[in-house]
Amino acid sequence: MEVEAFIFDIGNVLVRFEAGKAERTLAKLGVMRPDPASLGLLGRRYEAGAVGRAEFLASLRESLGGGLSDDVLASAWQEIFEPNEPMRELVEKLHGHYPLYLLSNTNCLHHEYLVREYPVFGKFADGVFSYRAGMMKPEHGIFELAIKQFGVRPAATIYLDDLTANVEAARGAGLRAFVYRHEAHDDLTATLRAQGVQCV
User: Fold this and answer.
1) What whole-number distance in Å separates Cα of residue 113 and Cα of residue 98?
2) Is the backbone of residue 177 left (phi > 0), alpha (psi -120 to 50) or beta?
3) pTM of the model
4) How many Å apart are CA 177 and CA 195, to the nearest integer?
5) Which fold has domain 5-17+82-194?
6) Looking at the domain that runs over 19-78, which CATH code has it been given?
7) CA 28 to CA 155: how far, in whole Å?
8) Could you say which DSSP state residue 14 is in?
9) Treating both helix axes as pointing N-terminal to C-terminal, what angle do 53-63 and 70-78 enclose, rounded to 10 degrees?
């Protein structure tokens, strides 16, 4: 079947990130060093939509002993990303030939930052984000939501994600899904060509 659309994960696909960078930055800023387990749990609840921005920042401030502004905390949480230039170039090639969509486990602070700082996100027609959906990959429901919202035919839609569990869940929803590794970007190019994508 001919490819009709693409759905992209964000982290370690469209951009690279290092989660530990936020922890190190916060440790330098705070009166107390953040507990990695508690910080991870808070971050996951934020991505899942269980807490909003204000509650997240208040909890983060408390975990560091107080005294830090929302702007300082937000910057520390946001500035963990770096460009993935080969993927940016791929998106540029696909744009105009295929509708492009986003499906990501993320939070509003990261989402806002990425859209502001990385022009590549302007190439995407729509997105489903865990903090809005109240679901997270690899839950089946978030894939079903994306398929319905984007109006795509799963078997004709390529989905790219860096995590095997998410790719397997996407395949369970009928999507044509592949694991992406930034260190093996050329493998993706070969895979897409084998799938009949000629513009890459």
Assistant:
1) 25
2) beta
3) 0.95
4) 11
5) Rossmann fold (3.40.50)
6) 1.10.150
7) 48
8) T
9) 90
